[in-house]
Amino acid sequence: MDELKNRIQNDGKALSNQVLLVDSFLNHQIDIELMEHIGEEFARIFRDQAPTRVVTIESSGIAPALMTARALNIPLVVMKKATSSLLTEDILQTPVMSYTKGSSYQLMIKRQFIDKDDRVLIIDDFLANGEAALGAARLIENAGATVAGIGIVIEKAFQNGKKRLSDSGYQVESLASISYMNEGVVEFDEDK
Length: 192
Ligand code: 5GP
Description:
Bound molecules: guanosine-5'-monophosphate
Shape: globular
Distance between the termini: 7 Å
Number of helices: 5
Helix content: 25-40%
Structural class: alpha/beta
Largest sheet: 8 strands, mixed
Number of strands: 10
């Protein structure tokens, strides 16, 4: 998606060869028009999979996921990063290793917000090692529902998340795929 790639080149900041800062348009200040275009693009890519619900993880996935759900005219559910390990019957949870924090948290969702016959589209801002998306997929499947696809705004293709998700049988689509980055330099896969 050229609009997104241009924005990353102009306003993104590679802090190292691991972390890209996009807080001026994606996850601190949010460019709503860009989010709208991202939502329309995910809707175009995944409409054929007939998703019935969009799921994301708080908080930086919410903006693109909201616009995707709007474009598909289906509900959005936000999975929470729980601070307590309290288990109750109406909550599903699973441990996830946070890429940016380097520690693990419990990802959780109330059962009532996911039905067995749902086809769920997972949307997230970044794909690194795939922990967050795999955790979300686990919860969806534990609820008895089906993962209809995984949409990622920015994939770091030099990390192994895409392979892990594809090997698990999920359709993964990203709107910008970074093949290499380092302080001040970002390079994209040619074909995205
Ligand atoms: P994964 O679970 O795939 O290892 O990492 C994905 C999650 O970590 C995303 O939800 C995102 O919040 C965060 N993340 C991973 N890489 C980056 C990055 O380069 N920049 C930012 N801002 N967040 C990242």
